[in-house]
Amino acid sequence: MASAAVFQRPSRRHPTVRGSSGFTLLEVLVAMLLLVIVAGALYSSYFTVLRARERADEGGEQRRELRGTLDLLRREIDGAFYRSGDRRLRFVVEDRDVFGRPASTLELVTAAPPSADERPASDLVLVKYGVKEKERQLALNREATDLFGSMKPLPYPQMESIEGFLVECYDSGKWVRSWNTELSPKLPERVRITLTVRDGEQTAAYSVQARPRVR
């Protein structure tokens, strides 16, 4: 008797589900390294933008101060007043330097600006400019007083952190760095003011010319 063949249906194997075993130490270290690199780049960009903005603000303030100072000097020199024989009326420029940087002094009598002060005052004011050095830093000081007043003027910083202040006078076809109406009883034809300031890692010179109207 022949034995009956036994057929077995092949069993279906279900895929095994792999349990999550977490991150390895190497993966954690790589992730932390990438995070540090990204954070460093973000902080570097932020501080670069911040420094650029601060430099732009400082540069804008310096340019406004520079324009105001040069405009004030031009107006005062344009309105310079001198009459021969009156020792109170004078125009004096002295050529000086501080650590090799130009540091001229300027003294003149000019027309007084309009004032709301009710105290009696003359129409003339004595103005003096000079460079003050402190810890190798230069500042341009200005003092002004009523020509016929008795109050002692107090100098105040017209512009801080300059690199040079040069006053030149033009007369008889040449520029000179000194002038004194006691020696030459007249005002110069033209006056050139040059202010040198720090511009980043370099220096920049800005000039303006004035013409005294009363000569």
Automatic annotation (TrEMBL):
<keyword id="KW-0472">Membrane</keyword>
<protein>
    <recommendedName>
        <fullName>Type II secretion system protein J</fullName>
    </recommendedName>
</protein>
<feature type="transmembrane region" description="Helical">
    <location>
        <begin position="21"/>
        <end position="43"/>
    </location>
</feature>
<dbReference type="GO" id="GO:0005886">
    <property type="term" value="C:plasma membrane"/>
</dbReference>
<keyword id="KW-1133">Transmembrane helix</keyword>
<dbReference type="InterPro" id="IPR012902">
    <property type="entry name" value="N_methyl_site"/>
</dbReference>
<keyword id="KW-0997">Cell inner membrane</keyword>
<dbReference type="GO" id="GO:0015628">
    <property type="term" value="P:protein secretion by the type II secretion system"/>
</dbReference>
<dbReference type="InterPro" id="IPR045584">
    <property type="entry name" value="Pilin-like"/>
</dbReference>
<keyword id="KW-1003">Cell membrane</keyword>
<dbReference type="InterPro" id="IPR051621">
    <property type="entry name" value="T2SS_protein_J"/>
</dbReference>
<dbReference type="GO" id="GO:0015627">
    <property type="term" value="C:type II protein secretion system complex"/>
</dbReference>
<keyword id="KW-0812">Transmembrane</keyword>
<comment type="similarity">
    <text>Belongs to the GSP J family.</text>
</comment>
<dbReference type="Pfam" id="PF07963">
    <property type="entry name" value="N_methyl"/>
</dbReference>
<keyword id="KW-0488">Methylation</keyword>
<dbReference type="InterPro" id="IPR010055">
    <property type="entry name" value="T2SS_protein-GspJ"/>
</dbReference>
<dbReference type="Pfam" id="PF11612">
    <property type="entry name" value="T2SSJ"/>
</dbReference>
